[in-house]
Amino acid sequence: MSHPDDSRFMALALTLGAWGQGRVWPNPAVGCVIVAGGRIVGRGRTADGGRPHAEVVALAQAGPLAEGATAYVTLEPCAHHGHTPPCAEALIASRVARVVVACTDPDPRVAGRGIAKLEAAGITVTTGVLEAQARRDHAGFFGKVAGTAPWVTLKLASSVDGRIATATGESQWITGPDARRMVHAMRARHDAVMVGAGTARADDPMLTVRGMGVTRQPVRVVVSRRLDLPTDSAMIRSAREVPVWLCHDADLEAGVVAEWQERGALCLPCAMQGQQVDPASVLAALAGQGLTRVFCEGGGGLSAALLVAGLVDELVVFGAGLVIGAEGTPAIAAMGLDRLAEAPRFDLIETRAVGPDTIQRWRRR
């Protein structure tokens, strides 16, 4: 049975958990709040690197005040022994009286066992508080558990007429410094930044987070069928410092793959879809490596493939107040759609100014 303040305290736990996004994979970004007598006595999120877990952090802060208190957790407490003891057992040992869980954990090692442990110890458990938001926040983790796909955010930065470069390929910079700084903040909230081979060749991007003070950089992912990438790129030169993963045709010659592995890249063989790497296979491979959230920055071909396959969860569009014309490079390549009914649909969740530019955030319908 829920209490009047459950939603308020769970909202705080969700906010805490979200701060861990991009820092805790392959674990979920969980938040926990401990409340005694209407007062918060402990709070925590999953620590960078994935442990300690949120419940352990919050219980350590609460200390003896946890006895008889209520714990608000955004995901069912773990019930299995891994690198650390189960969080369900930590909650039981602290003698909390009640645990409020936003949503259950589909991981087969948990999947109801955490709640069962708590109830067997005489602790009252309430589930489903702010469940929809929690499931959205943990959607990438759920996809990782299922081995299907992490959460995918597709970022576009274009002119008013949807162009990302002039006819000569000039693209720096369409948007201003405020928008570019926001992109770095978004990268930091994801486990990986992904681009297609064309973008990697044309722009020689580093794809790192800069100016945010982060200590754990996202993985750099390049989707390249033939691995026909420049061997002296900035990204490859730094592959031993910041991970570079290359998704390629599973039938590529072993010698070509070995050359990139020697340069420090992790090579992930993927299935093909016609003449391009199957985007669903790419995301399944990334989920299999433990990624929960991927930030895709194009180019047009990879963006179109993800959209056609229905694999984009959130669309972030930065718009600049300039017009390039039809001869410019479109933000999204041809998608082969004949009817509007076939077009992917998204719902607008935010629009605002970012310096001289705008940002729109759209979520998959």
3D architecture notes:
The protein is an alpha/beta fold and 365 residues long. The chain folds into two domains: 4-143, 3-Layer(aba) Sandwich (Cytidine Deaminase, domain 2), CATH 3.40.140; 148-364, Dihydrofolate Reductase, subunit A, CATH 3.40.430. Helices cover 28% and strands 25% of the residues. It contains twelve helices and 18 strands. The protein has helices at 6-18, 54-62, 87-94, 113-120, 131-137, 139-146, 177-188, 197-203, 234-237, 254-262, 279-288, 300-308; strands at residues 31-36, 39-45, 70-73, 98-101, 124-127, 151-158, 163-165, 192-196, 219-223, 244-249, 266-270, 272-273, 276-277, 293-296, 314-319, 329-330, 346-354, 357-364. The strands form four sheets. A nine-stranded mixed sheet has the order 11-10-9-8-14-6-15-18-17, with helices on both faces. A five-stranded mixed sheet has the order 2-1-3-4-5, sandwiched between helices. The protein starts with 5 loop residues before the first helix and ends with a strand. The mean pLDDT is 94.
Kindly summarize this structure in a few lines.
The protein has twelve helices and 18 strands. The protein is of the alpha/beta class and 365 residues long. Helix 8 links the parallel strand 8 (192-196) and strand 9 (219-223).
Short key terms for the protein model shown above:
single chain; 365 residues; alpha/beta; Dihydrofolate Reductase, subunit A; 2 domains
